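The passage that follows is intended for readers who have already worked through the single-chain material. We present the inputs for a multi-component assembly, then the predicted structure in tokenized form, and finally a short commentary. You are encouraged to pause after the input and sketch how you expect the pieces to fit together before reading on.
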Amino acid sequence: MSKPAKKKIIKEIKVDLSKCNGCRACEKACAAFHAIPKYSSFNPARSRIKVVIDERNDQWVPVRASGYTQAECNGRNHYVIDGKEYSECAFCPASCPSRDWFKEPDSGLPLKCDMCEDVPPLTEPMCVQMCGRDCLTYSEREEEVVEEEVTRGEMEMGIESLIKKYGAELVRKGVSRATKR
Amino acid sequence: MRYAETGYNLEIDLTVGNIERVETDPELTRLHLGGNGSAARLIWDRVSPETDAFSPDNLLIFSAGLLDGTPIPAANRTMVDTISPQTNMFSNSIFGGYFGPELKHAGYDKIVIRGKAEDLVYLWIHNDKVEIRNASHLKGKGAQETAHAIKEELKDPGIQVAAIGLAGENRLFMASIEHFNAAAARGVGVVMGDKRLKAIAVRGTKDFQVASPEELFKLCLQHYQDIHESPFNGDLMAIEWDDAFHHDNFAWGNARTRRRGYWNKALEDKWKEYTLKIRDRLQGCYNCPKNCHLVVKPPGRQRYILKCFGKGTWHMAAFEELPFTFDILALSQEYGVDNYAAPQTIAFAIELYEAGILTDKELPDFPEKSADRFYYLLEKLVRREGVGDVLANGVYQAARQIGKGAEAYDHNTIKKFEQIPLKLGKVNYPYYLMYCTSDKMAINQTEGSYPQDPIKDLAERKEFADGWMSAPERFKKFFMEWEPRTHPSFEASINICDWNETMHYVDDATGLCAFCSSFRGQFGGGSAYNIYNVPTFIKLATGMDFDADDLWQVARRNRNLVRAINMSRGLKRADEKPPEDHWKKREPENEQRLLDDYYKFKGWTNEGVPTKLTLDKLGLDDVADELIKRGLIKGDEDICYTDQSCYSEGRPKEAEVGFRKAEHFTLTEYNIKNK
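Having made your guess, compare it with the prediction:
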């Protein structure tokens, strides 16, 4: 049975590497916007965007925190672009054990970019608003997506069979552990 | 609660290896704001006038500016202060980049270093963890090479490093302290080397607070955009292709020859083509949108970042072309030598060779070509090899050590310090005062708020003056009265000197960049920071109630404190003169009268010493007592500084934070029109 297509807004930040001058104002803006109370911090260590800099290699890459990974990669790619070498890590948005980026400095908990979702919504994420240099530009586009709908019945059947096997208490703990990660 | 500052200094004694975290007195912030102001206070309190620069008791102080690291754009300067062995005076040098803000996030406003390590060490500051580490493996390494070696061994690319190269290790007087895209010089690199401190590495991930975070953030979000779009901010020398201004007007060689008409379109095109070929991008400092640095990779050399001021000094000293500068900078920045003093010292040695004072005995196998001579002498210099050992003490001392008439070739120093190579026609009153009396030892650290020339077209000049929000009212009047090619009045000249130097003292306390503040006002009158809007930023950041008059008073206090240090170290009125042949046509009588009037205006004796009245009014009573004890003042002099409010003639207290806007401004066009 074919499912109906839905419209979904995809938020995008375009990063023009040639325009970055390494000022790191985006980092400060991010830290400020996500601070509680709002704007009470300007500490780049709390930022969910980081300018990866290796000036010997002319490498200036603003990279945005995405997900948390438990393990580091078992290898690294090195990319050569116009004679300049970039480690895969320079583009990688993960909060991962191999480096201390995108980790809340006090707790070590991973940080993740949320595109500055707020009520009311910002016209653009704060890092983009700060970057007057147009290294970061924001756009939204609509995409039609066919989503696999999870019917309630199917999920409940699965959970019921788990409860039958392990008991409700153990399943509750299991779900809680799995969602914490 | 401390706002904008961390409230702590790091005190390091390298002799015994002691490290302390010391809470600072908030009253000092109110009095001096921070940066070189409070550093001068530490030097006054702890380094006696009898202390030699090479004594372990000399302090080397790295200060983050008061506003560094806050949301305020272009507040990122680190001030380095010490007693310089070259001048035996207070030395203040400034570098940009990322170091100051990182230090604040590590939890410190200053690093105060005394003593001397036995062997080469480096300092590793990671928030509350501070270590003095062995640096023997870094011995002889270049400045950036050192920075990267430290980042690798500590496994953190986010570390900020300030390091000396071979020049600092070998105690060259013109040694610099290099950090990423910036450097401090004028006597601080040599002291770092003397203390056997190869580098300071900082990583900070802590918070510090500002008083009104939301208001400040929103203001800065706009200010950042305004600075980005402003042609009145940033370093024009880094981005303009036409550089007739420096090449036709500044002196080549050992500050010797002015080559009028050197610049032409064909040369400009050639240099532009070459620059674009080796330039990867333009680059900036922490939290600043301006592009004042060039990331370049000359053939056969490592990639490096060119600091604005190095772009002309090397090839002009060598009578070479721009590609020579790009090439030799790849070496000289790693060795860590100042881009003003080092090329001039080398050009001085070449003149001595041509005059037969230095011979093939001192310079064996001396090459024929000027460029080759520069490479040859640079290597000798940084290793203190042969004659390099003498030249390493700077032009003034080297001339006297070499003798045989070499003294006559030392014609571009003041107070024993090499000056920017400029040889001009008729004495210029405000510049005369700035050259003579500046305790910063360099004209580009003194000039900057008042334009160098009047705008020729009167209607245009009127329009400029009307929109000149950074200028106290009296300067608008002086500017309108200024007949091209004539002297401003004594009164105007003194005030111009006073305003110019005051703004530098503001920047060097707050950490604001001179290219967005004190230095850039002279080119276009639209710098992002001025005496009227800086108090707003200070207030939002620190919570201290501040207006323009209060800010001027802090700058005056800091200026007088530095003055007191230098006077107690033996500075004399007789030392206050421009380089011998800086101007061809002099006016000795008027010059001396001008100096008399300026001293009086500043509240100083006729010998240039701050009086008790002046110092007491500035809250520096103890400084006055010490000057009396030392016999420099009597204490009953009836002279006090002239106090003029920034709010005269109905100027409102509510300052606009914005600044003059324009679509377009270039130094070249401005000069062609008005010079």
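Commentary: Chain A touches chain B through 34 residues (CB under 8 Å). Residues 6-145 of chain A form one domain. How closely did your sketch match?
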